[in-house]
Amino acid sequence: MLSLLIALAALSAAGPEDAIVTVKRDRPAGITEVMTGIAISPRHVLLLASFATSDAPPYVASGRLRVDPDTVFYSRDLGLAILSFDDAGFDGFMKPCDEPPVIGDDVRLVGQGVTGTVTAEGRVLDESPDGIFLVSAPRIDGLMGAGAFDSEGRLIGVIRGAVGSSLGSRAAVGTDYLALLPARSWLVWSELAMSGGWHATSSFGVTATSCSDASGERPSGVLIVAVDDGSPACLCGLRPGDVVTHVESLRVFHPETMRSLLVLAEDSIEARVWTRGTERSITLPPLR
After folding, report:
1. Other C-beta atoms lying within 10 Å of the C-beta of residue 229
2. 119 lies in which domain range?
3. Would 37 be classed as within a structural domain?
4. Which is more confident, 253 or 54?
5. For residue range 258-275, what is the model confidence (pLDDT) as tens digits?
6. Is pLDDT above 70 for 200?
């Protein structure tokens, strides 16, 4: 296994392309699908969760070599998955950057197409209420799941889908709006998955979902749908209808991010909560 993984490694982390990994899965009737993977550590590859399904398990490919992951971590909430390998091998990996994209800045998108690595230059146009950044870029195949890199070559996010339509009536020169999920939204979750501390033995006691309101009448964040009586969430003051907007200083939009912060916390942490037009701070206990 180790020798196979070493064969997949780049010689050095010279640029964003070195972090891009070819991920494949075999479908019925002899069809093989190709997807972009991003090496975020020597042993972990990030990709879209929709491609990491149990009926057609993904694997890393390089030429004729096939390497199956030892573990797959899913986050349906974030729409991402991480392939984990017991042995090291992805020398060209790139750690995610915790700084958000800057509106107006140029970004370089690097993905994996059927014939090889594809790149496109784009620009960050805006941030939607749910924390997704809109990117204007040429329409080419291979950008779903692509890594987004800033002018310094840092990994600032992943393309999770298309959220707009082409401009004008000439499809050949149209521009699509791509949905960039910033790295800071999934950084804590990925750190938790890679550290091996994925499972907590206790429950926080909430049912939650992501919420956004384009009208601005309420903030986007993590909407608390239900709270178990006597649970840690109940004891710290969370109630159905609350919207958690910040945990510590981090803006949160996904329950998975909030959960990961609680699992990684060594001590109690502060959260900002919106309820019916008012905002308050509460203390959240660490989740063990």
Report:
1. 7
2. 106-184
3. yes
4. 253
5. 999 998 888 999 999 999
6. no
What CATH number did the domain enclosing 212 receive?
2.30.42.10
What's the angle, vertex CA 215, arms to CA 209 and CA 216, rounded to 5?
75
Candidates 186, 230, 188, 213; CA nearest to 274 is 213
Residue 218 in tokens: 């309420």
Render pLDDT for 147-179 as a digit per residue (tens, 0 to 9).
999 999 999 999 999 876 444 444 444 456 899
Rounded distance, CA 263 to CA 265, Å?
6
- How confident is residue 197, by pLDDT bands cut at 50, 70 and 90? low
Model pTM score: 0.84
CB–CB of 91/114 below 8 Å?
Answer: no
- Tokens (6 digits) for 239: 């109630």
| Residue 181 exposed, middle or buried by CB count within 10 Å (0-12, 13-18, 19+) | buried
- What per-residue confidence (pLDDT) applies to 173? 43
Express each pLDDT in 237-246 by its tens digit: 999 999 999 9
Residues, the chain, total? Answer: 288
The total of structural domains in the chain comes to 3
What single string gives the DSSP state of each residue in 35-94? EEEEEEETTEEEEEGGG-BTTB--EEEETTEEE--SEEEEETTTTEEEEE-SS---TT--
Distance CA 152, CA 249 (A): 25
Given the DSSP bridges, would you call strands 80-84 and 44-48 parallel, antiparallel or unpaired?
antiparallel
